[in-house]
Specification:
The protein is 34% helix and 25% strand.
């Protein structure tokens, strides 16, 4: 987007820790973006958000604590919203914003289940507005380049994918909504692990047809450990493992193909490729990125295709529904309906 173009007028829906993280990145893009409003019912959270903006030399915007009031009174002052609220509210909030005529960047995971994903796609289609799901991986140059390589056939057909994600998540989220299954929709595998589920769903570009999964809550109300074995429509096989009770944080995604191999991360933090005849993986250079908001602006300006549309969110939601169904039966394989 040209710096001379009109700035996008943005409302941040939710101002918690992740919103403050995103605001730091958005503050680096003031020539393209004006944070015009926020919607946050917690006065303390709003104050912390304003402090973060001031640290980055951005004037704090006004706050309207009720979303429907914000949309009814101020939607004509806005172009887009960035929804960063607990998982349970994503469908409701995104639907309301799309119907108010606003383009939407929606924090991950997109929704709680496949039914909500299908509903959101219908709303997107009916309103004609833009909906991008804010996954670091899908919106990163590394994963986009990986997808292009896989779709081009240069590495041959996908045979097997193996991905892992790990973090000291159990201790770090204790006592928060992220360990409330009603609000969060899951535990580690649906929070940090959602990046793994989505990045793999994006890379494969096809549906999962059979899933066997085991989840362990480790004395909490939600999953902390998980193992997933799955088969794609093409016949390729996938294994996913998540551990939310271990030191540090990290990930690894390996894609094994008939003419080469590929390595990336669930957040798109690397890209390495090994082609047929090469002895080892080599780093692939990709352009720098300022994160999800920068990608959203490029999509909105028509400079790039939507890297993470709700169709990818639907594929991930169907996978998560199958994971939960299998785990509830002690790992019994379930097939796509």
């Amino acid at each position: 987007m040209s710096t001379s173009a009109k700035r996008v007028r943005l409302a941040m829906i939710g101002t918690g820790g992740m919103a403050r993280h995103h605001a730091t990145r958005i503050a680096q893009q003031q020539e393209t973006t004006e944070i015009a409003w926020v919607c946050e019912p917690s006065g303390q959270s709003y104050e912390l958000f304003c402090e973060r903006l001031e640290e980055n030399k951005v004037a704090p915007p006004p706050n309207e604590p009720d979303l429907h009031t914000l949309l009814s009174k101020h939607s004509d002052e806005l172009d887009a919203v960035f929804i960063i609220t607990p998982h349970k509210y994503h469908h409701e909030h995104a639907t309301a914003c799309l119907e108010a005529g606003l383009d939407v960047l929606l924090e991950k995971p997109m929704v709680m289940n496949a039914g909500e994903a299908e509903s959101l796609i219908e709303t997107r289609n009916r309103t004609g507005k833009l909906l991008v799901v804010s996954f670091n991986g899908s919106l990163s140059p590394n994963v986009r380049t990986a997808v292009d390589l896989l779709r081009s056939g240069e590495l041959g057909s996908i045979l097997n994918i193996h991905a892992v994600a790990y973090q000291r998540w159990k201790a770090g989220t204790a006592g928060t909504w992220r360990q409330d299954p009603i609000i969060a929709g899951g535990g580690f595998l649906f929070d940090t692990g959602a990046h793994m589920l989505n990045t793999v769903s994006d890379l494969v570009g096809e549906d999962f047809v059979e899933v066997a999964a085991w989840l362990d809550n480790r004395g909490t109300p939600v999953d902390i450990l998980g193992t997933i074995m799955a088969r794609l429509r093409s016949g390729a096989m996938v294994t996913l493992a998540g551990c939310g009770e271990t030191p540090g944080i990290g990930s690894d995604v390996r894609v094994f193909c008939s003419k080469g191999n590929l390595r990336t991360g669930i957040w798109g933090e690397r890209l390495e490729v090994q082609r047929e005849g090469e002895s080892e993986l080599s780093t692939v250079e990709t352009p720098p990125s300022l994160g999800q908001w920068e990608s959203f602006l490029k999509v909105r300006a028509g400079e790039m295709a939507n890297p993470c549309p709700p169709e990818v969110g639907l594929r991930m939601a169907r996978l998560w529904d199958m994971v939960q169904a299998s785990a509830a039966q002690g790992g019994k394989p379930v097939t796509a309906s």
